[in-house]
Amino acid sequence: MGTASEGLAPSLDDVDAIRADWQRLAPHLDTEVIDMVGRILRAAALLTRRGDEFLAGFGLTRGEFDILSALRRADAPQSPGTLRTVSLASGPAVTKRLRGLEERRLVGRAPNPADGRGALIALTPAGEDLIDRVFPRLLELERTLLAGVPAGERAAVVHALRAALASIESAPSGPAPASLGTAVAP
Fold first, then answer.
1. Domain for residue 135, yes or no?
2. How far apart are CA 112 and CA 171, in angstroms?
3. Pairwise pLDDT comparison (84 vs 54), residue with the higher score
4. In a domain? residue 158
5. How many structural domains does the chain have?
6. N- to C-terminal Cα separation, the chain
7. What is the rounded average pLDDT of the residues 156-185?
């Protein structure tokens, strides 16, 4: 039996089983979206879990790594607000992460000359050294995890994921449309 890395279609997976169960229980429902959403969520959860395990070996959480990475890519110190936007984290979460990184002397805080009440955050030499050691190794882990995607299909996968992300990002936020009804109380 061939493997996905040999270019053969992957075998049925848990998402196929979930969709089949729903089709059996409610054949009138269009469950096609489960094929994409189920796989995106499962892939994200598995990548996150493996990445978190790896980063823990360096004493980092994913959120701390994201901040160190954003600071490394930046040309100048960044405000906590900018780091919140880049990391998609809440203000309190960024504050907590920055506090921990500062206590470990991986980042430094200086007054923001453009805003007397604000601060600018920069990597320390220790923070720069850490991110420079961790990032290439994390890339290698992720490359290993995705090695089963045939090289000839990677561009198509990226294109499809880009389209899915654009669709999700452009969808209106807030309450579900009235046509979807209301949530059932537990």
1. yes
2. 36
3. 54
4. no
5. 2
6. 45
7. 81
If asked whether residues 85 and 142 sit together in one domain, one would say yes
With CA atoms as reference, report the closest residue to 64 among 90, 87, 80. Answer: 87
DSSP assignment of 94-150 = HHHHHHHHHHTTSEEEEEETTEEEEEEEEE-HHHHHHHHHHHHHHHHHHHHHTTTS-
Question: Token pair for residue 182?
Answer: 């209301």
Whether residues 50 and 73 share a domain: the answer is no
Asked if 55 contacts 134 with a C-beta cutoff of 8 angstroms, the reply is yes
The torsion region of residue 174 among left (phi > 0), alpha (psi -120 to 50) and beta comes to left
Classify residue 103: in a domain, yes or no.
yes
Q: Which bin fits 150, alpha (ψ -120 to 50), beta or left (φ > 0)?
A: beta
Identify the band that residue 180 occupies on the pLDDT scale cut at 50, 70 and 90: low
Assess whether 106 and 69 both reside in one domain.
yes
Mean pLDDT of the chain: 89
Q: What's the domain range around 25?
A: 12-56
Residue 80 shares a structural domain with residue 123? yes
Please enumerate in sequence order all residues whose Cβ is within 8 A of that of 72, keeping only pairs 6 or more positions apart, or say none. Answer: 123, 128, 131, 132, 135
User: Distance between CA atoms of 84 and 97, rounded to whole angstroms?
Assistant: 11
Q: Give this prediction's pTM.
A: 0.81
Report the alpha-carbon distance of residue 76 to residue 57 in Å, rounded. 28
Q: Are residues 31 and 72 in the same domain?
A: no
